[in-house]
């Protein structure tokens, strides 16, 4: 195990500069995609969000769910097994992950998939030139490590959309707590608060 970890660290150290260059190179095409298809990107995300909020509203009418306190966007490392980038979007009450009534959906940012996979292909090829007999687990770790750049990018995207997301939540008419928060992080892991509270009160006035 120690030898495997040592090789894993060696692979990451070798690829670190390549990962950064590969990602920054892809940012130009990502920026162009956002500029040309920003409305479509938001429309796709909004449609999924509205479906989730409709489910929440229906459960609240039946007294099966309490007031919403968190809207959580979670990056799914498990989706990397399928060579995809995917977010789980979930509305939770004050029980947070102990909330028993699930109201969740999944968002796959299509505008990022091609550039991510292109980068993965280049990085795996680069690693194979240096390290012999790369194992499937090592290839997965490369994909997972590179996905961290896109995880950070998606976090910034959701943060930039917080106002529109909050507006969609308010328009849905679901019951919310005064300290409602929009959160981003890894599923069942660490997360950061991107918006809520004061922003929610402004939307209601």
Architecture overview:
With 205 residues, this protein is α+β, with helices and mostly antiparallel strands. It has one domain (2-204). It is 60% helix and 17% strand. It is built from five helices and five strands; from the N terminus they run H-E-E-E-H-H-H-E-E-H. A five-stranded mixed sheet has the order 3-2-1-4-5. A hairpin with a 4-residue loop joins strand 4 (176-186) and strand 5. The longest helix has 60 residues, at 2-61.
List the helices and strands and how they pair.
Elements: H1 2-61, E1 68-75, E2 87-92, E3 104-107, H2 110-130, H3 136-160, H4 162-172, E4 176-186, E5 191-196, H5 198-204
Parallel strand pairs: 1-4
Antiparallel strand pairs: 1-2, 2-3, 4-5
Helix pairs in contact: 1-2, 1-3, 1-4, 2-3, 4-5
Record keyword descriptors for this entry.
single chain, five-stranded mixed sheet, alpha+beta, 205 residues, disordered C terminus, 5 helices
């Amino acid at each position: 195990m120690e030898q495997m970890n040592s090789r894993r660290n060696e692979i990451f150290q070798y690829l670190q500069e390549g990962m950064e260059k590969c990602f920054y190179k892809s940012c130009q095409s990502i920026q162009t995609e956002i500029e040309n298809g920003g409305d479509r990107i938001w429309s796709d995300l909004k449609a999924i969000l509205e479906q989730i909020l409709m489910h929440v509203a229906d459960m609240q009418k039946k007294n099966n769910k309490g007031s919403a306190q968190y809207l959580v966007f979670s990056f799914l490392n498990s989706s990397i097994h399928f060579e995809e980038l995917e977010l789980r979007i979930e509305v939770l009450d004050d029980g947070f992950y102990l909330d028993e009534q699930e109201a969740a959906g999944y968002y796959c940012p299509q505008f990022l998939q091609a550039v991510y996979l292109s980068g993965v292909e280049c990085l795996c090829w680069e690693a194979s030139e240096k390290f012999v007999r790369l194992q499937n687990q090592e290839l997965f770790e490369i994909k997972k490590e590179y996905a961290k750049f896109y995880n950070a990018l998606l976090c910034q995207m959701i943060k930039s959309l917080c106002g529109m997301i909050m507006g969609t939540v308010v328009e849905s008419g679901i019951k919310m707590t005064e300290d409602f928060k929009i959160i981003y992080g890894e599923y069942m892991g660490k997360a950061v608060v991107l918006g809520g509270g004061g922003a929610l009160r402004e939307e209601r006035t």
